[in-house]
Write a structure and sequence with these properties.
The protein is of the alpha+beta class and 511 residues long. It is 34% helix and 23% strand. The radius of gyration is 29 Å and the shape is elongated. The structure holds one RNA strand of 78 nucleotides.
RNA sequence: GCCCCGAUGGUGUAGCCCGGCCCAUCAUCUCGGCCUGUCGAGCCGAGGACACGGAUUCAAAUUCCGUUCGGGGCGCCA
């Protein structure tokens, strides 16, 4: 055991947390605990005050009785919301308290007072818009329903890493600063690299393939990728996390099997986060517009009642009661938003899923579905959002699209040997949302070169890419999964920015 | 890149169509006061906003033009 020989005389002194707020239950009744966190709310009733302290696990009630602990009462009731405190106290059972118990403090420490007003209320009863929230993300992230998103992200990443590890994949890291585009096509961000011009990598594709040539056999990488495209939608970012795998001696069906396993693990791990899912649901079940409508209605009525009461008071008559918030909120007919992860898991039967799996749907069938709904598409077109919406009606959950036309896929995708007009490329979708794309890659150098020519690309510009293929490249397949896209599906978020701590889009680089 | 829409206190909004009844609505919030069981606390009082620039008009939050910032849809993609 390592002894801490330093003197503990700083602000914290010898104070150390013994419990998170959410970790105190019946077994702790009667014990002395130390909790640390933010002042969520204080309700001061005069002789007694109730302070809600909050950490990442939840909140609990500190009860302050003025007559018994006047110093502590005075020290805490004047604090602003979101100040940081530590409280040592006794966990006391009390059926009147919110969770059946409360903390009666013995000692308290104020570590940081918060300025007022807050640019974004953490405990406020109005919902700020996403842009306001992102501008003040450090406050936004204090909300439990927002933190829950990132807890779920942590859980699914842990699950997927373990799953890939179990399947024999080795985790690697590849450069994000590169000299040239690895795939061509997309716009890249330029970087001043000493005296040269470099780029932020759009995909680890080339490096993954080099490692196949190096005999690493099965690798995965979880890292950022950068796209300089000027898209501006609820599902695009200019920096996002890609989970990439590549495997040797494998065709696209092997890669699909790995993907299905990994996604199923992610879904299962997310569905185990019951508390987090619940808090996301709770945080969203009311809608601003509805609240405002009702508030306005009742606020105006109350104002009228108050005016009447002034008159009645002067006449010595009985006063009318004001409308209470309880009635106000009861007037709202609000149904919780059902989260996708739950609706998927409600119908999810592990045995059934293992048997049937996620459907493999041929591109051709997708075209059929869209055409039957009178969407103007034909073989060879990319699937537009309009077309995807019709396919979503038939396949509302996870499914793969296979057998894509070779001509709309990149030069490095392996065509089918007997039907070269279709290729070994696949997408994983959830409804109309694309989550992953992958393929068996071309490993034969002469085919690569002729493909380049066919796509009107000059093989000379791809020397850097082609070199490893000259010296023994095994057949290989892989995919890249957009972590944020998967998170959107799992948490039911409509905007990809919700599932990124500090999103980078076309207009936002701060904070 | 294309098309549509918007900007009112710290936050979320009403008012805008039909200019004057607006030194601007309601809630939340902040501050002060009362209250010993709150738990979406309550009650009393106070505070705080028409994005910026120009035009029309006797009169502009409201109409028009420009700028800036934001939202939605599509394209492309993950």
């Amino acid at each position: 055991m390592i002894e801490n020989k330093g003197e503990r005389d700083g602000m914290l002194g010898n104070w150390r947390r013994t419990h998170f707020c959410g970790d105190i239950w019946k077994y702790s009744y009667g014990r002395t605990v130390v909790v640390a966190g933010w002042v969520h709310d204080i309700r001061n009733l005069g002789g007694v005050a109730f302070l809600q302290i909050r950490d990442r696990t939840g909140s609990l009630q500190i009860t302050l009785e003025k007559s018994t602990i006047p110093e502590i009462f005075d020290a805490l009731v004047g604090l602003s919301r979101e100040s940081v405190i530590m409280v040592e106290g006794t966990v006391t059972e009390n059926p009147q308290a919110p969770r059946g118990f409360e903390i009666i403090p013995g000692k308290v420490k104020v570590l940081a007072e918060s300025a007022v007003p807050l640019p974004l209320g953490v405990a406020d009863k109005v919902f700020a818009e996403l842009d306001t929230r992102l501008d003040n993300r450090f406050l936004d992230l204090r909300k439990r329903e927002i933190y829950s998103i990132f807890k779920i992200k942590h859980e699914i990443l842990d699950g997927m890493i373990r799953g890939l590890h179990g399947l024999g994949f080795v985790q690697v890291q590849t450069p994000k600063i590169v000299a040239t585009a690895t795939e061509g096509g997309t716009e890249l961000f330029g970087v001043d690299y000493f005296d040269n011009k470099c780029y932020l990598n759009q995909s680890p594709q080339l490096y993954k393939q080099m490692l196949m040539g190096a005999g690493f056999d099965r690798i995965f990488e979880i890292g950022p990728v950068f796209r300089a495209e000027e898209h501006d939608t609820v599902r695009h970012l200019n920096e996002f996390i890609s989970i990439d795998i590549e495997m040797s001696f494998a065709d696209e069906w092997d890669a699909i099997d790995v993907l299905e396993k990994v996604v199923r693990i992610a879904v299962e791990r997310a569905s185990e986060c019951r508390n987090e899912i619940e808090s996301i649901n709770d945080g969203r079940k009311t809608l601003n517009k509805l609240i405002n409508k009702v508030n306005m209605n009742i606020g105006v009525q109350n104002k009228r009642i108050k005016k009447d009461n002034q008159r009645l008071k002067a006449a010595g008559e009985e006063l009318k009661p004001l409308l209470k918030p309880k009635e106000k909120y009861d007037a709202l007919d609000i149904k919780p938003i059902k989260k996708t992860v739950l609706s998927y898991m409600d119908n999810y039967n592990e045995e059934e899923a293992k048997k049937s799996g996620m459907p493999r749907v041929k591109y051709e069938e997708c075209i059929d579905i869209a055409q039957r709904k009178r969407v103007a598409v034909e073989f060879g077109d990319d699937l537009s959002m309009e077309a995807m919406k019709t396919i979503e009606e038939v396949y509302p959950s996870y499914y793969f699209i296979t057998h894509w036309p070779t001509e709309i896929k990149p030069f490095y995708v392996q065509p089918y040997e007997n039907t070269p007009e279709v290729c070994r490329s696949f997408d994983l979708n959830f409804g109309s949302k694309e989550i992953t794309s992958g393929a068996q890659r071309v490993h034969d150098i002469s085919l690569l070169e002729s493909n380049l020519v066919e796509k009107n690309l000059d093989p000379k510009n791809f020397d850097f890419y082609l070199a490893p293929f000259r010296f023994g490249m095994p057949p290989h397949s892989g995919w890249g999964l957009g972590l944020e896209r998967l998170m959107m599906v799992l948490t039911g978020m409509r905007n990809v920015r919700e599932v990124v701590l500090f999103p980078r889009d076309r207009y936002r680089v701060i904070p």
